[in-house]
Amino acid sequence: MAEEEKKGLSRRDFVKGLIVGGAAGTLGSMGVYSYSPWRKSHFAKAAPKNIDIGECKSLKITNISETSWFDNKNLMGDIKGAGGLLVNQYTYNWPPFAEKKGQLGKGSYEKGIKEIKQWLPNHLDKAWQFQVENAVHPENAGGYACLIDVELLDGSRKKVLLDSGWSFDWTEKCFQREGIDRMLARREIDCLVISHEHFDHFWGFPVTVKYNPEIPMLIPEGFYTEGLQYIKDCGYRGKLTVVKPGLNPLFPGCATYVFAIPIICRVYGEQSLYFNVKDAGMVSVTGCCHQSIIQFAETAQKTIKYKKNFGVYGGLHISPFEDWDPKYDDLVFALKKYNFEKIGCNHCTGIVCAKKFIEAGYPVVRGTARFRSKDTAYLGNGDTIEFKAAG
Amino acid sequence: MEGKVEERYGEGYLEERKLVPRWPAPWPQIVNTIFLLAVFYVTWWIFQDPRGWMRMYTPYVGYMYTRWTLIVLIWMVYVYYYWPFRRHQLDNWHPVLKGVVMTTVSVIILVILIKGFFEGLLGNLSMAYFNPHQLTKLPGVTEFFAIEYAALACLMFAAIASWLSPSWPVAMEMAPWQNLKQPALGTTVLVVTFFIGTIVYFCTMHPHMGILYYPWQYFCSIAPPYWEKFADTVSGNFHVAWIMCCTIIVWTYESIWERYPFRVIKNDWTRRLVAFFGIIAIAWCCFLFLYFAQELWWGPAIRGTRRDAAPDWRWLHVGEMMVFFLLPALFVTFYCNNWPRKFSIPVNWLIRTLISIAGGIAVYWLYYNISHLVLGTQKGYSHPQQFPMIPTIWLINLMLINHWFMDNWPGWKKVNAPETVHAEEVET
To answer: Which of the four CATH numbers 2.60.40.10, 3.30.559.70, 3.30.9.10, 3.60.15.10 does domain A56-69+145-388 have?
Structure first.
């Protein structure tokens, strides 16, 4: 050993050096390889499924209401007071689940529904009056809903109601303004699609039930027990379909797609709609699009047989509270790649985002800012948008 | 002539103290795990849980305080050597008393730091985005997001501090000020690491804050940020990720690696510099590899999308995954006396590393299967408001308090004089 040391390097040190050097080399190579273009050879290359959902001729969307709430400051004040964005929405003491003299963040579905169940679904004015007297910020509740009127290739029509608002009072007035109440009563609307369980899309459900308690209804898998119980407590008597994650064709040219994703205020799962418009392309219609519009477009490319992207309608969930994050700029940059020809955004897209879209040169369809919608940068309440092939 | 005995405070305390397990293994480990988890759950419910009392998991407010608590603990023990606590207090106070007193001191420092330095000084006199009140003056910004944005800025600073603060004692061995006495030594290192941290902050996090507001603050920060092409995102999560990897590697190097392999370098300055930059190099390898691992598992990232396909989330998740590996590594060091010790250093090093990787994967799996049931978070991987680093760092903070302040009480006791002990179970 002593002789080896004299030579400058023992066998043991050599082996140790070899191990350490080998480990460092492996780690370094691993790091470099992980960012190199060669890594891409390991990615699975799944062929598009090309599922044929058929085609429709055109669709016209009427924005019943995109103003889910009227004052951001109040809404975010409530969320802050209740404990932030992960707090269970049923505990806020927001309408329609307020208990008597409801305190922010101290409520529950059970206590709230007990106060109004007797009036559902036919005496919504009484149920709402209780909310006005007891709920946290009842005046701030609005809601999201739109009517999708589809013309099929044979000339027949299908009507889909996407979401049912929040405030009983506001939603009913909006339904009456656009004639939705009469369409429901005359059974002209084929189904109700609930995009997700959030208060502003789902809690106004009794208004739909009031006019048609038997309307077929589709909800995404992931509703919590409170939401499922609410459907029963509203007096709903129709066919309820809980849609599993993935593609769910509805009628020629139309399919819903459910994404199994966690969402703020303790909600899980979102359902959006695809419409394949003949000679025009794919139109994506969303409630809030928590999965992101780019994910929705990518999913279409991987799943459905169609020619090209054509249009978008709905909330795109970018800056719902007029907040911002640099990652949203990634979306503004990247959307260009998808070549949408007509963008009808509103609701949780956010006014800031709509303005950024316009500045980026995207084909955003402007609105009229009527019926309490705030800005013409996007489609407001009562505005319509049509998607069909040119000429 | 009798010389005055110089006060050492906590210099060398962690290395010199003798901790004796109260019972044969594995009972001390089991007892301390139960104790830690109980304290974790109670404090989680009080401070963080969205169903609990203070509900600080908004998420950024709770996230910020959790990260800065970690750094304050590091300052107290690794930078200031427990100063101003005296050696006889460390040696003779009951572990519970030490835990309560020192944790209280850390909370006081924390509040002064957040409210005084960041919100008060920086937020009022330099960059408005550190102060929620200043942010509410911006049209359209609600109080909630003003608080969240300010907390985000503070916690981005914390990410850098959590890497640099331990790096100087661990990698740079406090050089060139190692011969100073406390509190001069601690203050010097604190100022130096804070200065370097500020430069790193300006180059990595400030451009993120500059495009957080509409319109982009072109004249205040580089917009879009320079890392856009490389990272496939303009989000600062890219930097958060590699900096978190550096943090985790510093602690791995200090704990289960016992400063191997760089400690074999005999020249002081070569060893220090190689250790400092070697930690960064190892961190970058892990950083890039874990991003690649996600591409293999979930498919390539898609820019502009949200959740688990988004590059910004993938980068952040790299940092999150690394913290999962740190938990078992610290457990092996603190409560298993860096088991195993019987093989050669490289073999021990390798076995402990493999244990930490396996343990990290197990904790990761456990977290994503039960956190929504017990922590009040949301199920699923990529909830935009879910940060697994909050509960993991919260637990690490408690482990540090238990190990550094409380001498591993209740499973262990500290002996000051020679005592009959199981020799193989004594931690030195």
So the answer is: 3.60.15.10
Chain length of chain B: 428
Contact A84 B224 (CB under 8 A): no
Tens-digit pLDDT profile for residues A235-268: 999 999 999 999 999 999 999 999 999 999 999 9
How far apart are the CA of A266 and the nearest CA of chain B, in angstroms?
6
Rounded CA separation B24/A122 (Å) = 70
Bridge partners (DSSP) listed for residue A342: A311
Distance (Å) from the alpha carbon of B190 to chain A's nearest alpha carbon: 31
pLDDT at B417: 58
Whether ipTM > 0.95 holds is no
Residue A292: its chain B contacts at CB < 8 A? 304-307, 309-310
Query: Is the CB of residue A105 less than 8 Å from the CB of residue A266?
Result: no
Pick the residue of A91, A324, A327, A355 with the most B CBs within 10 A to test the interface with B by mutation. A327
Question: What is the DSSP code string of B207-269?
Answer: HHHHTSSSSP-TTTS-SS-TTHHHHTSSSTHHHHHHHHHHHHHHHHHHTTTTTTTGGG--SHH
Inter-CA distances, A31 with A27, A36, B276, B286, B413, Å: 6, 9, 18, 7, 43
Q: Between the CA of residue B226 and those of B215, B223, B317, what are the distances in Å?
A: 18, 8, 21
pLDDT at B1 over 60: no
**Burial (CB count <10 Å: 0-12, 13-18, 19+), residue A129:** middle
Q: What are residue B20's phi and psi, to 5 degrees?
A: -115, 125
**For chain B, what are the domain ranges?**
26-422
Burial of B219 (0-12, 13-18, 19+ CB in 10 A): exposed
Interface of B with A in 47-86 (CB under 8 A): 50-51, 55, 57-59, 61
